[in-house]
User: What shape does this take?
Amino acid sequence: MVLDELRTPIVLAPMAGGPSTPELAAAVSNAGGLGFLAAGYLSAADIGERISRTRELTEAPFGVNLFAPAAPTPTAEYESYVAQLAREFPVGEPRFDNDDWNAKLELLERERVRVVSCTFGCPSAAEIARLHGAGSEVWVTVTSVAEARVAVEAGADVLIAQGSEAGGHRGSYMDRPEDDITDPLGLFALLQLLTAAASVPIVAAGGIATGAGVAAVLTAGAAAAQVGTAFLRCPEAGTAPLLRDAITLDTPTMLTRAFTGRRARGLRNRFMLEHLDAPAAYPEIHYATAPLRAAARAEGNPDAVNLWAGQTHTLAGEQPAGELVRQLSEGAKTALEKALSRRIQGC
Assistant: This one.
């Protein structure tokens, strides 16, 4: 298993939409962790080029992350929201696609990367078998015990436990507004539930930004820590300048569907607060808001663009990615040694 081969239990979160680059993935893998490329929003041809570039930069294992497709949303469920936005902002045509899912599966069968991870759902048992046949491990993002059971039954090798602290989109299989009255599970609650219910290794994700955070999830039963927001300011990341600057500020985060039609965590801004009732319609809303988000980035306007980040975003530094991996590793060692040095009295 790839996790057993790593020199350090650090996994790079994929971070689609800009931050993910071959340079970032390779730097993490070269430092002993597991780098990831995000295939979301890219064509199969584009991700194929990025796989080739990453292989030029590292001989170490790395992974590729896919968005699992869902069903189209009926137009009636989002047309009034898009019309409302159009009165104030430039909007695009809302449309559905499957993010080139079938072509990407075929590509990954040929490319034979060491790990393929999925979010927004679980591949079918047949699809997982195809990837296993290509020599790839399949990791699936889960946000509940119920989702974990589906993934294990389908043949997933590893579960990525995404706590509610995580930045970017929630990896939930279904995104239903009626479920919003139930608090999403934080990482430590989810991790304890999954270690009690699942027999496969678990990678912990959400709000991990320090070595002490890495140590905490390892002691709670995780095999590795997946880190995303902490890498956003690394020079190898393709993070937009607006987001690089914004995460240095002590701005609260919140969950929203306003920009994409799927629940995601980002820095709170005016657009999110003014569209609390945005419908669940992904990727239709994602395409509808693309022009307004592009305009906001061009204008340097942080109030009308998605600034995805986790709850510990102010801890992100500007060091090279390899150095960050080393800091996290050393910090985890120190934290574990400190914890073990504490005296625990028997009852």
